[in-house]
Amino acid sequence: MKALVIDDEPDIRLLASVGLTASGFTVVVAEGGGQGLRLARDEQPDVILLDVMMPVMDGYATLAALRADAATASIPVLFLTAKAQMVSDPRFAAEPRLGFLRKPFVPRDLAKRVREFLGRL
Q1: CA-to-CA distance for 89 and 48, rounded, in angstroms?
Q2: Is the pLDDT of residue 48 over 80?
Q3: In whole angstroms, what is the distance from residue 2 CA to residue 64 CA?
Q4: Which residue(s) pair with 120 in the sheet?
Q5: How many CB atoms lie within 10 A of CB 90?
Q6: Total-model pTM
Q7: CATH code matching the domain that covers 2-119, chosen among 2.40.400.10, 3.40.390.10, 3.20.20.70, 3.40.50.2300
């Protein structure tokens, strides 16, 4: 299973990569939305872990661009966020391939949480 981690924080990219790789995932990382969009098209990951708060192109803009591109529109996305209120945001209620993971996360539990999310789709 392949995961794309899009986050501007090097520590988060590293922790997510280590946690997912240790559980058998192939992991590709991007430092921001633009790079993440290119990698999503090229790599066709099974899931994308997407930071909400990033400079230049934030998670909302990245998600909109992913959904607007036929090559990436159906890829499940897990928003990485420290903002608990996003989980109940009505803007995302109609998005069936969207989930939320709160930061900070425990790297050794990350793969389990990703698999649980994918199992609900």
Answers
A1: 20
A2: yes
A3: 21
A4: none
A5: 6
A6: 0.92
A7: 3.40.50.2300
